[in-house]
Amino acid sequence: MQIETPDANNSASIADPAAREFLAFKLGAEEYGIDILKVQEIRGYEAVTRIANSPDFLKGVVNLRGIIVPIVDMRIKFNLGDPSYDQFTVVIILNIAGRVVGMVVDSVSDVTTLAPSQIRPAPDMGTAFNTDYLIGLGTLDERMLILVDIDKLMSSAEMGLIDSLAN
């Protein structure tokens, strides 16, 4: 049996029933996190089929084992400069409200477990990122993750990918 001592600086343990796991990924210099339960798989970036008259951030679609998956480049979506595609560029395949969507990110680092005490409310700073789509900021020692509510973001009207979330 494992006995835990409370330590605010320690990473959350799986034994904490309120702890949540986030997939950490990079966009530019910042590190973000999304709920690991929304992630279906992680793939290397591959060429996409462009869709005419689609927004710039919608790179196109890929055929993933018979499912046509829209691919969103998060760097373009969040105005983080011109994207470059290299061996570290990955596509995170998400399952949101029964729809499969891919998002292009610079790289994926790890899965991080955060206790509620490690998640702080997001400040409203007028960033390129609408705070409506933020869960908060996850703190882990000297590391900080911008925690994204990927359901809200991908189902937002501006994305136009998913009609609405089933409540």
Topology (elements, then pairings):
Elements: E1 20-27, E2 30-35, E3 39-44, E4 58-64, E5 67-73, H1 74-77, E6 90-96, E7 99-105, E8 107-114, E9 119-120, E10 134-140, E11 143-148, H2 150-154
Parallel strand pairs: 2-11, 5-7
Antiparallel strand pairs: 1-2, 1-8, 3-6, 4-5, 6-7, 9-10, 10-11
Shape: globular
Measure the end-to-end span: 39 Å
Number of strands: 11
The helix content is under 10%
Low-confidence regions: 1-13
Q: Structural class of the helices, strands and pairings?
A: mainly beta
Query: Rg from C-alpha positions?
Result: 17 Å
What string gives the helices and strands in order? EEEEEHEEEEEEH
Strand order, sheet with most strands: 8-1-2-11-10-9
Question: Could you give a short account of the major beta sheet?
Answer: 6 strands, mixed
Beta-strand residue fraction: 35-45%
Task: Please tally the helical runs, counting DSSP H or I stretches of 4 or more residues.
Answer: 2
Arithmetic mean of pLDDT: 83
Give an overview of the whole structure.
The protein is mainly β and 167 residues long. It has helices at residues 74-77, 150-154; strands at residues 20-27, 30-35, 39-44, 58-64, 67-73, 90-96, 99-105, 107-114, 119-120, 134-140, 143-148. The N and C termini lie far apart (39 Å).
